[in-house]
Amino acid sequence: MNIKSLLIGSAAALAAVSGAQAADAIVAAEPEPMEYVRVCDAFGTGYFYIPGTETCLQISGKVRFQVNVQQDVLTTDQQVEDGYRAYSRGYLSLDAKSDTELGTLTGHIDIEADSDTTFLDGAWIQLGGFKAGWFYGFWDKGLNGETDINDSGLAAIYNAVSYTYEAGAFSAAASLETFNNSTGSARGTLDAFDVRQGTWSDFSDDWGVSGQVSGAFGSATADLLASYDFDAENVALRGFVSVDVGPGQLQGFAVWASGASRYWDDSEWSVAASYKAQINEKFSITPGFQYWGTRNVDADGDFVGDNDAWRAGLTFDYEIVKDLATKVSVQYDDDDTAADSNWNGFVRLQRSF
C-alpha cells in the first residue's frame, strides 16, 4: 500500500466515524422557564402574587388548645358539680386582593375546624366599600378581655350585603341582613327563635337592617350602632367607646333594646367596661365588668320583671415566644334567672401564623 492509498483510507475512516458521532449526538433540552413567587407589599405583610396573575394572596390562621372549667354544671355522670371540658381548634383564612378601576377587589374565606365540628366562618366578596357574602356584622365587636357578652350569644354572622363610606376620621356603614340559613350561632347552636337552616323564606320574613357611624378623636374612637329586626319588630341600640389611658386601653359600651330580637335578647339594657393594662411588651392584665338590667322576656318578646345579672372577671395574656401565646381567664357570674352564682374560666394555648 502506497502513501496515497493510506491517506485516502484514513480520511474515509475518519469521515465515517465523524458521521456516526454526529448522527448519535444528544442535544440537551432547553430548561423550562421558572416563575418565582413574588412578594406583594401593596396590601400589607404576608401577601404574595399568585403565579401568573396580578392577584395577591395571604394565608393565615391559628391553632388553639383550650380547657374550660365551670362551677355547678351538669357533667357526664348526670350530676351538677364542678366540671371541665377541653377542645382543640384549627382556623384557616385565605384573603385574595387585586387593584381594579373601581377599587380593591377582595375575596375572603375563613374555615374553622373544632375537635367536634367543621364549618364556614366567613366567605365574602368586597369591591371598594361594597361587601356581600357570609360575614360577621357590626355586633361582633367586643371589649378587650373575655368578660363581656356583646351579642347575647346569638348569631352575629349573617348572609348580608353592606356598604361602608369612609371620610378621613369618620365612617358610615349600612347592612341588609337575612337570618335565613343562619344557624343561631357560629357553631350551630339553635337559639330561641325559629332558625331554619337551608329552607325557603317568604320575602317578608327573616330580614334585618343595621347602620353604624364611627369616628376617631385623637386617641379615642366611638361607634353608634342601630339594628332593626323586621320579624320581631324591635330595635337594638349600642354605643361603643375606646380610649388610650396611661399604659393601656379603656373601653366600654351601653346597649338598649325595645324588645328581644336576633341582634340582642339578653336584657332590656346593659353596660360593660374593661381596661387592658399593658404591663410589658409580653404581658397584659384586663379586668372587666358587665351589668344586665331586666332579664326576663314574655311571650310577646317584651322585657319584663326586675331580674338582673352582673359579671366580673380578669383576663391574663402572655406571649411565650413570637406567634405563641397563652391566655387565662377567670369570671364570676351572678344572675337572678339562674339558680346559683358561679365561677368559670379557661386556659388557652394558641399558635398564630
Detailed description of the structure:
With 353 residues, this protein is mainly β. The protein is 6% helix and 56% strand. The chain is built from one helix and 20 strands. The protein has one helix spanning 3-23; strands at 39-40, 47-49, 56-74, 80-100, 103-114, 118-127, 130-136, 157-167, 170-178, 207-217, 220-229, 234-245, 248-257, 269-278, 283-293, 296-297, 303-304, 308-321, 324-335, 342-352. The longest helix is centred in the first third of the chain and has 21 residues, at 3-23.
Span from first to last CA? Answer: 85 Å
Computed over alpha carbons, the radius of gyration is 31 Å
Strand content: over 45%
Overall body shape: globular
> How are the strands of the biggest sheet laid out side by side?
3-4-5-6-7-8-9-10-11-12-13-14-15-18-19-20
Secondary-structure content class: mainly beta
Tally of DSSP helical segments: 1
Q: Specify the biggest β-sheet.
A: 16 strands, antiparallel, barrel
How many strand units? 20
Stretches with pLDDT under 50, minimum 5 residues: 13-17, 183-196
| Helicity, as a percent range | under 10%
The averaged pLDDT comes out at 88
Q: Order of SSEs, N→C?
A: HEEEEEEEEEEEEEEEEEEEE
